[in-house]
Design brief:
The complex is a heterodimer of chains A (532) and B (318). By secondary structure, chain A is of the alpha+beta class. Chain A contains 19 helices and 21 strands. In chain A, the strands form 6 sheets. Chain A has a 7-stranded mixed beta sheet, sandwiched between helices. A 4-stranded antiparallel beta sheet of chain A has the order 4-5-7-6, with helices on one face. A 4-stranded antiparallel beta sheet of chain A has the order 14-18-13-17. In chain A, helix 2 crosses helix 3. The longest helix of chain A is centred in the last third of the chain and has 18 residues. The termini of chain A are far apart. Chain B has 318 residues and is mainly alpha-helical. In chain B, helix 7 packs across helix 8. Classes of the chains: A alpha+beta (532), B mainly alpha (318). Chains A and B meet through helix 8 and helix 14 of A and helix 2, helix 3, helix 7 and helix 12 of B.
Chain lengths: 532, 318
């Protein structure tokens, strides 16, 4: 009851801040048991009837593209390839802004009662840009390609859990090594674009079944697309053409939006948001998501193998100050576990951890630390504002008598030499669509990216049990217990969840806040239209 | 053999030798970077198996000496190989971007070089008077601004205050020449501002130096106008130092403008090089490094040769 109220309050606050669309709000409040009518009234804003307009060229200016990028969806790792893949590619299914599954190439998804065998019915007549038809065999070949380590796929960890894949007629059957109630969310991973023949012959051909076909592919410069005439879903893909320009420089990107050279930009610098709000023709969209900035301690290395010391550091960080100064207020405070209300099955029963110098000092004393400097490594690229954030942390910790010391590292090699190697450093996570995926990626004892070296038998046991638990209430309870364990025993200091901050021209219609990812989870150019 | 021809041939041979030495240095320098290509590509996703697979696939397991000679042989046969990161053909990628680099450098040079020399002549003519002070003051101010600051000023002035140009200066094949000129207008303005002062000051100093000579006094006593004296008598003897500074600036326009490229999103070699350096894409880094070195060596060689040719003592040996 209480947590329902809290969630409702959170959603109302999000709606008031303009961070939630009506559809999302109604969808999620009704999921809590609120009647649709009441939900609508709560939202308190008449929906503006907007008809999509067809035609024109939508132009995006984006940070996060390099001349080393490839059209091979297995290799996508930064923002521009993500957006590019979402333009030409199509997955089995996608995740809607409200966190439910949106069937795409699979028109029906069903599982056996033990969540071990999953069936995906492939929609008939979905066409690739080259005129061929999407078959169940293509789907299996695509998934197989990603299971091959030589493909270097970012989705390897996801497809590894599949023991057997079968294509029969229009049905794809996946048998898992262990039960997983969240499999459809895993299939919505952005690497798993269905390609003709699985993309085995030419993975970087850029031919898919998505709403736009690739015209020009100049990595690190621009990507242009034209409408796929036979695209199966007429409700999206309104513009005739899409152009994605790579503009890595913040000032140039902002100027391009202001001057009308592009219609949407990602990664608006929080420092200039207030200034941009006064600019005519430009809107700032700050969307609450699952991404978060973290300081991570290795639970198996001294001095961080001492939970009292970890607790001391958790109380020694001023979260509100971080949200205000590092995020410019565009975000929310974290509570030392990586889940927030943007996740399904989230239960907010935890008291917000605050900066408490006295408690921090008490824990620090109890830890018996010898007083030698505790080194926190950071780099400008660890997350935007990571150096400032580390210095703020050191200042508040020093005030509590903890000898925290910041060590600046170069961006170059940070992810190979510092992150997941050094015992205490700054980092970030983009979040995942579901709790299981987030916990499995970074907090399971055996996870490759267990970057806090957190090993807790009870936590692992709950995580694996929750995967096969189809009773939502029970599953929610399990996740809550896991959050509790991580919050009080883990090596994760999570001061803040960051919003995705984008700039959008007034000429764009159909914008919808999507907590799954930046720029409407990579689909803004597909779902929006141009108001001439 | 004519002594001048001999000198020129010597210079060229020296240049080629230097280029070979530079190629070895580039290779060693890239080798010395921490981490390797496989680690850089995989980043957060670098598991030991993935690393081993990737290293094998890319031939990173071979000894450095073997890789150096394979690479050198490839260059001589015009085969630069494929980028390790995305498999794109390096020669093709470089071809287009080198064209863009030369286009931008060319546009900037066509404006900056004559302008700098004329301003230098004028400043020398009115040395110490107000035109000299105004010219020196303005050009020294613009050279003192970091390029990206100058770029932001220019972006503000020409896209926000007086919106006549676009802030993003990408050029593509298929654009008309006029459209390309319009696209690169802002970076060209910035580059001109940056290189003007150096060449202008050198022209002025070289001319003033020559102006002390006795033959200039003779020319003045003949009653020639000051501008004629400078243009006809002083300038030809000041050419050598001016040319060497001009060449240095041209080289800078080709190899040193990555900041300007980034700010304006201009798709040329500098940005291409930086992207591949961060991903440890050795073949690309080496190829672009070698091209930059070749440009530098060639332009300096040209300056030397022009200097030799401009020197009457070398042109007419006894």
């Amino acid at each position: 009851m209480d947590d329902k109220h809290r969630q409702l309050d959170w959603m109302v606050a999000q709606a008031q801040a303009g961070r939630m669309t009506r559809r999302e709000f109604v969808g999620r409040t009704t999921a809590l048991g609120v009647s649709a009518g009441l939900a609508s009234a709560l939202f308190g804003k008449a929906a503006r009837a907007e008809e999509p307009k067809k035609g024109g060229v939508i132009r995006l200016g984006m940070q996060g593209g390099e001349s080393t990028n490839s059209l091979d969806p297995a290799l996508a790792a930064s923002e521009v390839p993500y957006q590019v893949n979402m333009t030409w590619g199509e997955m089995l299914c996608d995740v809607k802004p409200d966190g439910t599954i949106d069937p795409r190439i699979a028109e029906e998804i069903s599982s056996s009662p033990d969540a071990k065998e999953w069936k995906f019915k492939i929609q008939k007549g979905v066409e690739y840009h080259n005129g061929a038809t999407v078959t169940a065999e293509d789907v299996v070949a695509t998934l197989k390609r990603h299971t091959d380590e030589k493909s270097q796929s970012g989705a390897l960890g996801i497809v590894q859990g599949i023991a057997d894949m079968k294509a029969e007629g229009d049905m794809v059957t996946l048998t898992l090594t262990a039960a997983n109630a969240d499999l459809p969310f895993l299939m919505a991973d952005y690497h798993l674009m269905i390609q003709p023949g699985g993309g085995v012959d030419n993975p970087a051909a850029g031919i898919g079944a998505g709403p736009y076909a690739v015209v020009v592919n100049e990595p690190g410069v621009r990507h242009t697309f034209k409408k796929h005439a036979n695209y199966f879903d007429s409700t999206i893909g309104h513009a005739d053409e899409v152009e994605i320009l790579v503009i890595n420089d913040n000032t140039a990107r902002t100027a391009a939006l202001q001057s009308g050279q592009v219609h949407m930009i990602n990664r608006v610098d929080p420092k200039i948001v207030e200034l941009l709000k006064g600019v005519p023709g430009v809107q700032i969209k700050a969307v609450a998501g699952r991404g978060h900035y973290v300081f991570i301690m290795h639970c198996d290395k001294a001095p961080f193998d001492n939970n009292d010391l970890r607790m001391a550091l958790k109380y020694a960080i001023n979260r509100q100050e971080m949200v205000d100064k590092i995020l410019g207020g565009l975000g929310s405070r974290g509570n030392d576990f990586p889940i927030n209300a943007a996740y399904p099955l989230f239960e907010d029963k935890f008291e917000q951890r605050e900066y408490d110098a006295a408690k921090a000092a008490e824990y620090y004393k109890k830890s018996g630390h010898d007083g030698s400097p505790i080194v926190l490594r950071t780099a400008p690229g660890a997350f935007p504002g990571a150096v400032d954030a580390a210095n703020l942390f050191a200042a508040s910790a020093n005030a509590a008598g903890i000898p925290l010391q910041v060590q600046l590292e170069p961006d170059d090699g940070y992810w190979s030499n510092v992150w997941n190697v050094q015992p205490f450093c700054a980092s970030y996570w983009g979040g995942r669509p579901v709790q299981d995926q987030m916990y499995s990626t970074a907090y399971l004892s055996t996870a490759e990216w267990n970057d806090t070296k957190f090993r807790n038998a009870r936590f692992d046991e709950l995580l694996l049990a929750a995967r096969g638990e189809l009773d939502e209430a029970k599953r929610k309870g399990m996740y809550t217990e896991m959050a509790q364990i991580l919050r009080d025993e883990g090596g994760l200091i999570l001061p803040m969840f960051n919003d995705f901050v984008s700039g959008v021209s007034d000429k764009i219609g159909g914008w919808e806040d999507d907590p799954n990812g930046e720029l409407m989870n990579g689909r803004a150019q597909v779902r929006c239209w141009l108001n001439a | 053999m004519h002594p001048i021809l001999k000198l020129v041939v010597q210079r060229i041979a020296l240049g080629l030798l230097l280029l070979l030495a530079v190629s070895a240095v580039i290779f060693l320098g890239v080798e010395a970077l921490p981490g390797d290509t496989a680690q850089a590509i995989l980043g957060q996703q670098a598991t030991p198996e993935a690393l081993a697979n990737l290293r094998e696939k890319m031939g990173l397991n071979q000894p450095p000496l073997t890789r150096y000679f394979q690479w050198l042989g490839g260059i001589l046969t015009g085969d630069l190989g494929k980028a390790l990161t995305n498999g794109a053909d390096i020669a093709t990628s470089i071809g287009q971007r080198l064209g863009n680099t030369l286009f931008l450098a060319g546009c900037a040079a066509v404006i900056a070089v004559p302008l700098a020399i004329i301003l230098g002549l004028v400043a020398a003519r009115y040395a110490g008077k107000w035109p000299d002070k105004v010219i020196s003051g303005i050009t020294l101010t613009t050279i003192s601004l970091p390029e990206f600051v100058a770029a932001y000023f220019v972006i503000y002035i020409f896209t926000q205050a007086i919106p006549i140009f676009q802030p993003v200066a990408m050029v593509f094949p298929g654009m008309s020449f006029w459209a390309k000129l319009q696209a690169v207008a802002l970076p060209v303005i910035v580059l001109v501002l940056v290189v003007l002062a150096h060449m202008m000051r050198m022209t002025r100093a070289a001319i003033l130096n020559v102006m002390q000579s006795a033959y200039i006094e003779t020319a003045e006593l003949k009653g020639l106008s000051p501008m004629t004296v400078i243009w006809k008598h002083a300038f030809p003897n000041a050419i050598a130092p001016v040319v060497s500074v001009v060449m240095l600036n041209l080289a800078y326009l080709v190899v040193g403008v990555v900041v300007v490229e980034v700010v304006f999103g201009y798709n040329a070699l500098g940005q291409y090089l930086v992207d591949h350096v961060t991903k440890r894409d050795l073949p690309v880094v080496q190829a672009v490094g070698l091209i930059f070195a070749a440009v530098y060596i060639f332009l300096n060689m040209a300056a030397d040769i022009i200097g030799i040719l401009a020197n009457p003592r070398l042109r007419h040996p006894k």
